[in-house]
Write a structure and sequence with these properties.
The structure holds 2 protein chains of 2 kinds.
Chain A (H helix, E strand, L loop, with lengths): L3 E14 L2 E14 L3 E6 L5 H9 L6 E6 L2 E2 L5 H10 L1 E4 L11 H11 L5 H15 L14 H13 L5 E5 L7 H16 L3 E5 L3 H4 L4 E6 L2 E7 L8 H15 L2
Parallel strand pairs in A: 3-8, 3-9, 6-7, 7-8
Antiparallel strand pairs in A: 1-2, 1-4, 4-5, 9-10
Helix pairs in contact in A: 3-4, 3-5, 4-5, 5-6
Chain B lengths: L1 H13 L1 H38 L5 E6 L5 H8 L4 E12 L4 E2 L2 E2 L5 E4 L5 E2 L18 E5 L11 E5 L5 E11 L12 E4 L1 H10 L10 E11 L5 H12 L1 H4 L6 H44 L1 H9 L4 H42 L9 H22 L8 H5 L20 H11 L2 H27 L2 H4 L7 E4 L9 H11 L4 E12 L2 E8 L8 E4 L7 E5 H7 L6 E6 L2 E11 L8 E5 H6 L7 E5 L6 H11 L4 E4 L4 H43 L1 H9 L4 H39 L13 H22 L2 H4 L3 H4 L2
Helix pairs in contact in B: 1-9, 2-7, 2-9, 2-19, 7-9, 7-10, 7-13, 7-19, 9-10, 12-21, 13-19, 13-21, 13-22, 15-18, 19-22, 21-22
The chains are: A alpha/beta, B alpha+beta.
Bound molecules: adenosine-5'-triphosphate (ATP) and magnesium ion.
């Protein structure tokens, strides 16, 4: 039996718009398990990103609960959220969002320095290891503007895991990348998951979804189905794709 | 053109912040100069009118009436260069008056009431219009004495024969000529009957004690265009009238005495304006360059739509000119109340009631000039636009905002500090401008502090003091020094006596106040060269050096009545007494001139408990003098307080203006930094930074900039402040400054500004709190 790492109950999110309210999430219940590579799929505009941001505390939900380690993220203070962001969660954005005047190395270490359980030199060492692993150690001192999209995204992944987060969030991490870079990034994430990293990823791309051990399908802000898969192996990629696509079609994707 | 205006209106709406900031700064500038210029103009107008009404001549010569011989009258009346001369009588009371029975340490002069006399209403905001004539026994005081005496007070003094005169204060009047606080005489107005009575009891120069002396003011109007200075020389050659006179100022000199402080004010404000305009230009250039960076896509699109480079530059020029013009207009409007307040303040010094009109034409023209200068710089600052390529802009390739600088400081712990430093080093050009701005502000603040502190009123009213004051000086001379000191030393071995002797003498043809002290240490301190030691040495002020053309090492001739002697100049000193026109001799030196009357005399004790013993010994040994415990001179204390207060106010005003200016700049800079770094701030939050860390980072950044600016400003002021202030204050007689040696004067302004900037930046960055990580997402 797998442990639940994060769960939501009756999660609601609305936006004020033109004086009225747009309700995007209307009572979402979801459980994310430890060690899983969970993928959220759904049509464009179905509320995937909104779900991810509400679950990760990047954006505050307007109702319901998000429970992490027995605490409700929705009710957390600014300070608690900040410590959650650098201590427990990692986040990868579609647009990388690296700080433009920090070198790749510094982009990775800055959240590391926020972590009080490590010394600065331990953080630096860890960052070096990660850059090695991500294949970007040769451009350590480059600014983001001087790097390719793939390099930037690998840097963003390294930044997200510098503090060994309990849960790694990713919102379409390959959305801005070409095919070759996409494969590289997905491989890295699969690799991280194999070594025990729990991941929650939003994607559009069925090929990316194949990396998952569990797929959730969202429509109009509600979870309408889930699919459990065995751990990803390269050799049965084709077969998985067929299975996932069939399931998605059945859900109306 | 129409399309440009569309863009302009859209920008004015969406980028309000920067424009409000610029308009606000312009407004501060306009208020400062409009207030000062108008104040000055109003005073000049009032002084001109008052001098004309009082029928003040081109040259005023005051003589003891006893010296006004027929020869002199003939010489004056028959001089071809004199068109008209009027003889007025003034009584000089050489005795401290008693006010309501208490002796007051001032000296009064009494003139006869005429119809020209302008009497103030109760709150001194206008003149009384009805009959203001004085009855016997009544007296009007000049405005400057308003803090010392009040309506209803009774002033008494006695003539040599013991006759007591008593006058009741009826009100305050405006003395158009000697009224300014900067003029030492206190001319009061009495009824013609009293004037005649007192004149009858006046002493004569031949008397040993002289309680009241009658003087004659000769008001001379020269024929058209003849210089009063030439006339002085000519008259003196004929009848020695100038040598005998008490003083002989020209109309110009009399007017300058009244305008002294506003003149200084205008000069200071002028320098301030030049510096502030520079600051505004830098901040606009900064703001324009960051606008261009942030809008480069939009601007590229405009170009691809067929806007020429010139049209886009014009857009910027129009936008900023509108902001400047709006600021100028608001400034001119606000000047009306501001000017009124300033004029009320300066009335305390000029003691002249002026209108509170604004010199609107002049100031509007000045505003226009400033705007024009700014336009040139704005145009230059937009040159970057020509480098914008439409293709690059549209394809979304950002012209890199940050460059890989070798100066970059690694980002390490502590994060707020190192991120702050990184922001500065990765955008050096932008922050270099800011450092320069703060340097300018700090420079000015230090200069002002130096001014206020060097304008040491103790030095202004340099007077001798000690523990025991000796009065009844009429019969004492410098030669009595040793015999008196011997008596003192028998009681208190370490005590000593200081005597001051001073009189106007003719130095190189000019009437100059000459002072001598019985002890070297009482001499004015030389700012250059050394103090006189031998009886043929003299120390002069820079003003005297300039007007006589004589320098250290030169010899100079002094005449007093029938004595003429040569003296060698050994040094320069500085004073505001006598408007900086003064000379110092040794006690032996002034004796050589056959003058040794004492004007001040004090005993300084080494053992204060012996005071009574010494006083008794002095009073019993010498019946011609009287010794008493010295008390602080009330009237100089009040003047000092007034001037100190005024200087403080000027200092505070300039301080708060500068701090306000600096705060507006900080707010503008944080805003623009904030807009540019919006995404980065969101990212920092997303990786788990709390807002307070980010805000601290913002504030630290500006603190660093301010500290660097302070350093530059301090260095600059160490080099430039002294000569700058010297040239501004020459007219006040202050020609040399004690260098701002004390650390506090140099560091206080910096400390205040840096702390203010840190706080302003921290407050201005409150928006960071509101930046949600969501803004990254929806982008
Ligand atoms: N700040 C906002 N204000 C108003 N509406 C918003 C806001 N953010 C998102 N929405 C709306 O919420 C809905 C869900 O948005 P969300 O970004 O979660 O969709 P998504 O599933 O991630 O879509 P995509 O696959 O295109 O990324 C959309 O219809 C969007 O227009
Ligand atoms: Mg999305």
């Amino acid at each position: 039996m797998k442990n639940i790492i994060l769960s939501s109950r009756g999660l609601c999110k609305s936006f004020a718009h033109n004086g009225g309210q747009i309700h995007i999430l209307t009572g979402l219940d979801v459980d994310i398990y430890e060690g899983d590579f969970t993928v959220i799929m759904g049509a464009s505009g179905s509320g995937k990103s909104t779900t991810l941001y509400s679950l990760s505390g990047m954006d505050r939900a307007t109702g319901g609960q998000v429970l992490y380690k027995g605490k409700d993220i929705v009710k957390m203070s600014e300070k608690e959220l900040a410590s959650l962001r650098h201590g427990d969660f990692g986040f990868i954005f579609q647009q990388m969002h690296l700080v433009s005047n920090l070198t790749l190395f510094e982009n990775i270490t800055v959240p590391g320095y926020l972590n009080k359980s490590r010394t600065a030199s331990e953080t630096d060492k860890r960052a070096d290891e990660l850059m090695e692993k991500m294949g970007i150690s040769h451009i350590k001192t480059h600014l983001p503007g001087q790097c390719s999209g793939g390099e930037q995204q690998r840097c963003a992944i390294a930044r997200a895991v510098i503090n060994d987060p309990a849960l790694l969030f990713a919102d379409e991490p390959t959305g801005a990348l070409n095919k070759r870079n996409t494969t590289e990034v997905l491989d890295l994430m699969t690799e991280l998951n194999r070594s025990g990293q729990s991941i929650l990823m939003v994607t559009h791309d069925a090929r990316a979804a194949c990396r998952a051990s569990r797929i959730l399908y969202i429509e109009d802000g509600k979870m309408i189905g889930s699919l459990d898969l065995p751990p990803y192996e390269k050799q049965d990629e084709k077969r998985r794709e067929v299975q996932v696509n069939a399931w998605l079609t059945a859900n109306g994707f | 053109m129409k399309s440009i205006m569309k863009l302009v209106t859209a920008d004015l709406r969406t980028k309000k912040g920067a424009f409000i900031g610029i308009a606000f700064l312009m407004m501060l500038i306009v208020i400062s100069f409009t207030g000062t210029v108008s104040n000055n103009d109003d005073l000049i107008k009032a002084v001109d009118e008052n001098f004309a009404q009082a029928d003040c001549g081109d040259l005023l010569i005051r003589l003891y009436s006893d010296m006004l011989s027929d020869d002199i009258r003939d010489a004056v009346n028959n001089d071809p260069h004199i068109s008209r001369a009027r003889y007025d009588s003034t009584l000089m009371i050489y005795q401290r008056p008693h006010v309501n029975g208490e002796e007051m340490e001032i000296l009064l002069e009494l003139s006869e009431y005429t119809d020209n006399c302008k009497v103030f209403n109760d709150d001194c905001t206008a003149f009384l219009t009805g009959d203001t004539a004085l009855q016997k026994g009544e007296i009007y005081l000049p405005y400057k004495l308003r803090t010392l005496m009040h309506t209803g007070d009774v002033i008494t003094f006695t003539a040599n024969d013991g006759t007591e005169f008593s006058l009741t204060v009826k009100g305050l009047y405006q003395d158009p000529i000697f009224g300014a606080l900067t003029v030492s005489s206190n001319r009061c107005i009495i009824s013609p009957e009293d004037h005649a009575d007192i004149t009858e009891k006046a002493s004569h120069l031949t008397d040993r004690a002289r309680n009241i002396l009658a003087c004659t003011d000769i008001n001379i109007h020269t024929t058209d265009g003849h210089s009063p200075y030439e006339l002085k020389k000519e008259l003196n050659d004929k009848c020695s009238i100038i040598d005998m006179s008490l003083y002989s100022p020209s109309r110009e000199e009399l007017e300058d005495n009244i305008k002294l402080f506003t003149n200084v004010g205008v000069r200071i404000v002028f320098v301030y304006i030049v510096l502030l305009v520079t600051v505004v230009i830098i901040i606009m250039a900064n703001s324009i360059s960051s606008n261009i960076e942030m809008e480069h896509t939009d601007l590229g699109i405009l170009r691809s739509q067929g806007f020429t480079q010139m049209q886009i530059r014009l857009k910027f020029v129009i936008e900023y000119t509108i902001a400047l013009a709006a600021g100028a207009v608001i400034g001119l409007i606000l000047s009306y109340p501001a000017c009124g307040a300033l004029i009320r303040l300066f009335m305390r010094l000029s003691c002249t009631l002026t209108s509170t009109d604004i010199s609107i034409g002049k100031c509007a023209a000045l505003s226009l000039l400033i705007i024009l200068i700014c336009v040139i710089f704005i145009f230059a600052a937009t040159a970057k636009i020509s480098k914008l390529s439409p293709v690059r802009a549209i394809s979304g390739i950002s012209e890199d905002m940050y460059f890989n600088s070798r100066l970059n400081i690694p980002v390490r712990k502590p994060l707020p500090l190192s991120i702050a430093l990184r922001q500065i080093t990765s955008d050096v050009k932008n922050y270099a401008g800011s450092i320069l701005m703060f340097a300018i502000l700090i420079f000015f603040l230090i200069s002002i502090s130096v001014f206020v502190s060097s304008f040491d009123t103790d030095a202004v009213y340099k007077g001798m003091n000690g523990d025991i004051k000796i009065t009844n000086l009429g019969s004492l001379t410098l030669s009595d020094h040793d015999s008196i000191e011997n008596v003192i030393k028998q009681k208190d071995e370490g005590a000593f006596l200081s005597m001051e002797s001073s009189h106007r003498m003719n130095i190189d043809g000019q009437q100059i106040m000459v002072r001598a002290y019985s002890r070297d240490k009482d001499l004015f301190k030389p700012t250059y060269g050394r103090a006189p030691v031998y009886d043929n040495e003299i120390m002069i002020t820079n003003s005297v050096s300039r007007s006589t053309g004589k320098e250290i090492g030169d010899s100079i001739q002094i005449k007093y009545i029938s004595t003429t002697e040569e003296f060698v100049i050994t040094g320069y000193f500085s004073t505001v007494n006598e408007y900086g026109v003064m000379a110092c001799l040794t006690a032996d030196g002034i004796k050589k001139m056959h003058y040794e009357d004492i004007s001040e005399c004090y005993v300084t004790l080494s053992d204060r408990s012996k005071a009574n013993e010494v006083i008794n010994a002095l009073n019993s040994s010498f019946d011609m003098l009287s010794a008493e415990r010295a008390k602080e001179n009330e009237s100089t204390k009040k003047y000092k307080k007034l001037i100190d207060g005024l200087l403080d106010i000027i200092g505070y005003v300039i301080y708060s203006m500068s701090v306000l200016f600096a705060s507006v700049i900080v707010v503008m800079m944080t805003r623009s930094a904030f807009l540019r770094e919006r995404t980065d701030l969101g990212i920092y939050k997303a990786v788990g930074m709390v807002s307070s860390t980010l805000r601290t980072q913002f504030a630290v950044r500006f603190l660093v900039v301010a500290v660097m600016g302070s350093l530059m400003g301090s260095i600059a002021s160490a080099a430039v402040t002294k000569p700058m202030l010297t040239s501004m204050l020459k007219i006040a007689g202050i020609t040399e400054f004690e260098a701002a040696s004390d650390i506090l004067t140099l560091t206080m302004p910096s400390a205040i500004v840096c702390a203010g900037i840190f706080a302003a930046a921290y407050l201005a960055s409150h928006k960071i709190k509101k930046i949600e990580v969501r803004e990254l997402i929806t982008e």
